[in-house]
Design brief:
The structure is a single chain. It contains 15 helices and 17 strands. With 462 residues, it is an alpha/beta fold. It has a seven-stranded mixed sheet with strand order 4-12-11-10-7-5-6, sandwiched between helices. A four-stranded mixed sheet has the order 1-2-3-15. β2 and β3 form a beta hairpin.
Amino acid sequence: MDDTLQSRLSVADKAHCWHPFTPVADWEASDPLIIQSGHGVYLFDIAGNRYFDGTSSLWCSALGHRHPRLDAALIDQIGQMGHSTFLGMTHPKAIQLAQRLAEITADGLDRVFYSDNGATAVEIALKMAFQYHVQKPSPEPQRTRFLGLTGAYHGDTLGDVSVGGVNHFHSLFKPLLFETLRAPAPHCYRCPLGLSRPQCALACLKEATDLIDQHAETLAAVVVEPIVQGASGMITQPEGWLKGLADHCRNRNVLLILDEVAVGFGRTGTMFACEQEAVSPDFICLAKGLTGGYLPMAATVTTNEIYNAFRGDPSNPKTFYHGHTFTGNPLGSAVALAVLDAFEHDHILENVNRQAQRISERFDRDLIGRRFIGEIRQRGLMIGVDLVQDRATQMEFPAHLKPSAIMCRIARSKGLLIRPLGHNVTFLPPLISTDQEINDMLGIFIESYLEMENTIAAELVP
């Protein structure tokens, strides 16, 4: 590869591109990684260097890169049509996809509204929930409020930011946001109530249900990520928390919106995370793995009861006035159908659970108990390694040390791409990873931790 080309691209990027969630000064001082291609679990940069895609390209390339089923579906569809509007007309692939999503999601979820990404999927659910209460047979227009969790992340539209709870990302926009009720996240390692399992008796659930009781008459919906809060640091929920929350919402006639953008499509070991506690929500929001990272597409799946509240007549149409140019895009729909075919025929979930067990055993053997390992949180192939300066007190590192970023830089130099998330290091390998590929990724991950540990230990010496 021509070094001059790489240099020109780097200069042009820094002159014209604006990267998400990336401090400008850090990027301008960096040596950009320019990815040229991908195949299977690997990405290749413009210089031909190979890397394991240890984050599944921000959690969405669940079936890896250049998957034969997905490639074939895309090529076949592009030979027919790239795009046709879904406003006032339809097309076969979107119809077939909606039917299959209705078949595989929780009982009662029969209506599919397409959009472009996870943030829009959640935003749509928020708007639908509010409008449903206004238009249902016994209207309750006073239900205008939402309840979310501390540390929640649901996307970056203003509605999503309002129900989100990551101050580091969103505090600047507070004057633009609507007020949201906030329940403590069920974070057992850093319990916001200062309790511990199992003696706590799920006190965090009671905090949430008490809030629901106090505001039941004005609550439109509760919004949570089921089983794992992803961007909060891979926070895993204790058994029974989700089921208890769902049951209480149902008892108080409060809608439940489950954001499965990150945890859906096999990532936690079941097709959808809510299956693990047999929860049927009023809305499930899907994206990322829906198209295996090939195309931006999302779906908000809801019930016929909610859909029927939008039936009207010419004098009062009750229409949901929300849409996207690429709603139900044929290319995305075709690839999403191929993703579902892969899950149906290629034993994806069996592989996820087998590899998850291998990772757990290796981490138990080689990382648990190390000096800076606070907690390793895992559900399926969704893993967060919580780094702390002092294991006994859970004291975090000073901001300037950035051990998670250091570890990820070391891993990149060894051929593994992983990402820091605050004081956590995240590891979300493709669901198709083989035994050998998982072993190789784990080897680099552990080597990178040990090298980081030595580097940081030296920094901490008085």
